[in-house]
């Protein structure tokens, strides 16, 4: 796997993480091409091969996914078509054409029952359709590209160019006096700008296998919401804790899906900054109107 001398092909380039990653890759001077749904339908093996064949062997970064966790419960075929079959098609084409594949995955591949941070080699036990489809995508990548892949699991993403939990909380705060937010699911909020840097680090180091990459620390969704409201200077809203059962969402969620980042830290020499610091930066950009 090459470093910055190799071409990068970002699939899902118009998404929240994809947009930030494209910006950062361009800033580094990397040769990068972005592909999104207009350029390639990853559900089609032929379309994927046609889209990737013009490029010299390089790094294909698959960020394309159906991420509506509750929606996936109703769109089962579509979820597996995009999240599993799409990853399989990209892995098959990458193997044929000599590309390296970076596959983005999720903390939701774990059931959350362990009550401790999950390591990369812990057994997956996905519960919902979204989780199961992403776990199947991982499986296909490992089988088809055993020596030429890097799977990056992350969690609770928010970023500059997409719908996310931070914006949802601030939008709701402008409409309601009381917000009820789940307090019995814990994870690691992760800022896409920080994750983008980590993705490039792993690529430049030729990282192989599976890595967990999140901002440091942990929180419940309630903790996250309270911090958002407080640091954004919102004073007319009260945030109240709720249980998962209170909200009655269609898809099951892991109760404790904190990811252990030790493998990433050992390879790169440093962790990502705390989620609180990352949130401060996001809110500062938002306040300046630069989002």
What structural keywords apply?
Rossmann fold, 41% helix, 11 helices, alpha/beta, 16% strand, 291 residues, two-stranded parallel sheet
Walk me through what this model shows.
The protein is α/β, with parallel strands linked by helices and 291 residues long. The protein has a domain at 8-163 and 190-215 and 257-272: Rossmann fold (3-Layer(aba) Sandwich). Helix content is 41%, strand content 16%. The protein has eleven helices and twelve strands. The protein has helices at 16-28, 45-52, 69-72, 76-97, 129-144, 165-173, 192-204, 221-231, 244-247, 262-268, 275-287, and strands at residues 8-11, 32-35, 59-62, 100-106, 149-154, 157-158, 178-182, 186-187, 190-191, 209-212, 219-220, 238-242. A six-stranded parallel sheet has the order 2-1-3-4-5-10, sandwiched between helices. A two-stranded parallel sheet has the order 6-9. Helix 5 (129-144) links the parallel strand 4 (100-106) and strand 5. Helix 2 packs across helix 4, helix 4 packs parallel to helix 5 (129-144) and helix 6 crosses helix 8 (221-231). The longest helix has 22 residues, at 76-97. The radius of gyration is 19 Å and the shape is globular.
């Amino acid at each position: 796997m090459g470093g910055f001398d190799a071409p990068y092909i970002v699939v899902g380039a118009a998404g929240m993480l994809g947009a930030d990653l494209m910006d950062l890759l361009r800033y580094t001077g990397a040769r990068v091409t972005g592909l999104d749904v207009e350029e390639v339908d990853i559900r089609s093996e032929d379309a994927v091969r046609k889209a990737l064949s013009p490029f010299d062997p390089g790094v294909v970064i698959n960020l394309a996914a159906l991420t509506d966790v509750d929606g996936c419960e109703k769109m089962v075929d579509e979820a597996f078509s995009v999240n599993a079959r799409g990853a399989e098609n990209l892995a098959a084409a990458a193997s044929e054409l000599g590309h390296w594949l970076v596959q983005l995955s999720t903390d939701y591949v774990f059931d959350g029952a362990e009550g401790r941070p999950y390591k990369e080699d812990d057994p997956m036990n996905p519960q919902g359709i979204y989780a199961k489809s992403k776990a199947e995508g991982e499986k296909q990548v490992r089988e088809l590209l055993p020596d030429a892949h890097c799977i990056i699991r992350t969690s609770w993403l928010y970023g500059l160019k997409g719908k996310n939990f931070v914006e949802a909380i601030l939008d709701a705060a402008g409409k309601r006096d009381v917000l009820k937010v789940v307090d019995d699911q814990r994870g690691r909020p992760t800022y896409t700008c920080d994750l983008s840097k980590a993705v490039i680090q792993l690529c430049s180091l030729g990282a192989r296998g599976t890595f967990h990459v999140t901002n440091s620390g942990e929180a419940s969704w309630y903790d996250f919401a309270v911090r958002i409201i407080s640091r954004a200077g919102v004073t007319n809203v009260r945030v109240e804790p709720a249980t998962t059962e209170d909200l009655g969402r269609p898809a099951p969620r892991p109760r404790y899906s904190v990811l252990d980042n030790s493998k990433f830290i050992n390879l790169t020499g440093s962790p990502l900054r705390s989620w609180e610091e990352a949130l401060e930066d996001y809110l500062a950009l938002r306040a300046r109107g630069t989002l």
